Queue: 4 jobs
Job 1
Amino acid sequence: MNKNPAATDKVVRSVLAKAGVLGARELAAWKRPQDDIRRLSQRDYAASLRRHLSSARVDALVRRAREVWPHFNRAVLGPPSQEFFASAADALQLHIKAARYRSLALYGFYVDRAGTMLTKPLIFVNSAHHALAIGTAFCHEVGHHFSAEVTKPKSARIRFYFDAAYSAHLRDEGELFADVVVSLAGYPKTAAGRIFTKPERRKIAQKGGLDEALIQRIRDHLGGSYGFDFSAALSPRQNLQYLAGMLHYAKLRSALLEEFDV
Ligand SMILES: [Zn+2]
């Protein structure tokens, strides 16, 4: 998985040392997940998708992802494992580093190799989380990698992913694109069509939260595919933080189906 551990470890350490400063806004938001949930419920995801992305761009993303995972958007991707990461690192020409990080606010980061000592771009994921969250972080960073393959950045840009302030992703083309990878990986088209029923789809994508029956369908899907459910072992706040992420990716998936039929 990693042919140059010393260099990647050094980069991981130096990037993590900046997380608190560069992520100050997100870390503050992480402490108030209920604010994020309220904002996300009100956001119109269909409008954000139309503003920042196109059907052609999402189709190109699916084609690129299928070069790595032929079943992408046909069956759920993951859950992540050592073997999953090893084969992804190979196919994507990446360093992938999974390690426990003390703050659960951080999901991971992506750093392009330009301007660094890395021979390949690097994805870091915080393995202190549940497998579903680890997979979410990984897919999000793969989204940044797909963008970088096209734009070929000249200087390194660190893309931190904090489990907070998701509504800011709706205003940022790069973050929204990265989140589309997550939504398609976790809710392949057939499952998405079953969970986000046709009469409800537009409403979910545009405004409002998720009703009880829908939340149950989502929980059944995530439980069956990734073994995830809200746990009594976690703090109420951590469960709310996971709920914010669930709401975000569900609304985005519904909007993708409604707007781009993907
Ligand atoms: Zn990101």
Job 2
Amino acid sequence: MNLLDPILKIFSFDKEDFYYVKIERNEKCYCNSGKKYKSCHYPKHLKSSKRAVRKINLLTGEETIKVLSIKKIRKDHDLFKTSVISE
Ligand SMILES: [Zn+2]
């Protein structure tokens, strides 16, 4: 473990003013197609190891949709309000 890690961690906690919420498969897709995520963009994301998430600003509550790689989601799991993707 790098000695700087705990320091960088504290630093990044100060900096983060947002959190992520996973878009569930049964939720409506973020693209406004009217279809559920699982029958719209989800299969594409599954193939490319990506998932759609909501990035929510802690201060303003403003939501933006992000498509993140599973790798990035695992790495940033502490920024997630909902459990991290397990499949
Ligand atoms: Zn879609």
Job 3
Amino acid sequence: MKILYIFPHPDDESFGPSPVMHQQLKQGHEVHLLTLTLGGATAERHKLNLSIEEMGKVRLAEMLKVKQVLQPTTWTMWELEDGGLTKMNPIILEDMVLKLILSIEPNIIVTYPQHGISGHFDHLTIHSVTKRLFCQLKDLQTGPKRLAFFTLPENKNGTGNAHTKHTPDEDIDCVIPLHDDDLQSLHDTLYCYESYMDVIQNYRVIEQLGNSISFEIWDENHKPFLTDLTDKIDN
Ligand SMILES: [Zn+2]
């Protein structure tokens, strides 16, 4: 199958989804990524005394290291304004994402849930854009058949920070167990982001995720949870 991950910033793919991508690649699936910005506006840039543009270059270089480690099928990197997705004309933004989806024709699309985990406005914007496009395309023969939201379940709270949002257990549809090599992939991809070490350690990202990754699935209900995003897809 073809799985397309859509995230606004460098590192979004590594703060949880990367071990699942690793597992899917290992299973022979195509894993495509879209990152919409270079993430230069992060507050972390002040510690390094870098301008938004300079920080964007640092993060692009880090993302290219992740590409080497993870080896996704394709990784499309755009240079839209970090923190600026809400300021864009939504018709233009949707049209850009639509063209990419049509060129890849994924079976599954993955993005952030409605709460965006961190609540970052770019995360909320990409959730809305992707959900609308999925609903528009799902009935086409070559359209995506499943929309999944990478999330943190409630039972893993107590970590992250005061702003971290969680999904209640009743809304979780898929929990993917991680094997040792998947966990290694999580570690290896996260640690490509040298400029983000403080955040990775302060948020206790690896500890917070534990040994499974959870997803909500739009307009589907699975109890018991699916253990693989490609299971039970309507075609
Ligand atoms: Zn982000």
Job 4
Amino acid sequence: MRTDLLKHLGRGLLAVAAASCLTLAHGRSPGPAVIQIVNGNEPGIGFNDPSPALPVGGNTAATVGGQRLAVFQYAANLWGTKLKSDVPITILSTFEPLPCTATGATLGAAGAISVWSDFPGAEKPGTWYSSALANKLAGEDIDPVPSPTGDDLDIVAFFNSDLGQPDCLAGSGFYLGLDGLAPAGQIDLLTTILHEFGHGLGFQTFTSGRTGNQLAGQPSIWDHYLYDPAQNKTWVKMTAAERATSGITPRNLQWYGNTVIGKAAAVLDRGTPELFLTGPGLDRNVLIGTALFGPQIDSRDDQLSAQIGQVVDQVNGTGLACTPLSAANAAAVRGKIALVDRGTCGFTVKVKNAQDAGARAVIVSDNVPGGPPPDLGGVDPTITIPAVRVSLEDGTALKASLATPSKFGNYGVLSFNTQKLAGADYGKRVFMFTPNPFQQGSSVSHFDTSAKPNLLMEPFLNAGQPIAVSAPKDLTFELLKDIGW
Ligand SMILES: [Zn+2]
């Protein structure tokens, strides 16, 4: 059974899709995969752009088009050294104008052209596999999708040729070097392509994360490995409504595949900063964003445990702490963890004011609903106390607890949990990206942004991502192995 995906492919970043399952019961092992880049551009544009180019970062092609193609081929070769398949993987690739403004742009996208189920070699019945993986498992080309070039296409990839023009994220542009050393402001094309090819090879579920509805009534191979500990079920065992809930429960959904679990400790840093809150109606860990300024909550620190004092300096009962604290507010937070609200001024201003008033740490309560709480940005080398952000929901619950009469009061415990990897749970199961509200094109089919160091398949391009797809630098290939590669 086959379903074409091309019609599902918008011109935005592709939602992720899926694959499932283990090794193949064929008599012999396939060799290294050959990945072919098919140039889909018309003469004179995109890969055929004849503008002369100077060598950059090991890319010595003499034209802009040639350098673009060299980056694609480099990414294809890097993936090809990892993957095993007897069937060539063919990627229809173009560089063309995509939606853009002066301040925002679609960088590009890639995805499987078709999905298959119940083919010879499919490990899980009634389950969608992307075509490149289906071919590998079947040991033959089962998806001879006709193309204008006569190639049997598996993946389509398109990238924005206008990037960096005045009307398209002005001043940016793709870095065409092969060394991962994009200068500030430029976007590393190689990293971007490695990421997008990852999706096309199977790093995505074809089930809708937003509605939970399966593609044509069948699960994707991914859904066998997406485990939700809050519901104690994998996606394949859930109703659509349960999957939709799972897709917006932050830092909960996990990858439950043995290859990723087995390599997680070799890739991810040990330790996760945590905040435990106690008080009437509380007593639980809450999700936090950490500050990019001030002391980090890491293994160098002892656990910080202190009472919580709320700043209230606004008539509506919130505390912005944008000005030096009043005597009453200073008395409320001295020697304690100060609770302040997000808004009006920068995070460093709030934290500095609390620090000046004698607070030992700061909790910033978000002012918009949803989660997980993003990190606190800003720079101020004079800040010497740790700060974290909690969600509006958790901040509101903390305030309600503070307002409840109690003999013991409210405490916060900031600690560094070395029993957990950065971006995984106690069982080394890596979190998937499931923010609330749902982010189309990003939710579910990426690793969570809490992973440290950054992983290739996080939803946002991060500076300094390694040019690698496998352990000990990354876990993308390991996830693909779990689904059958
Ligand atoms: Zn992606």
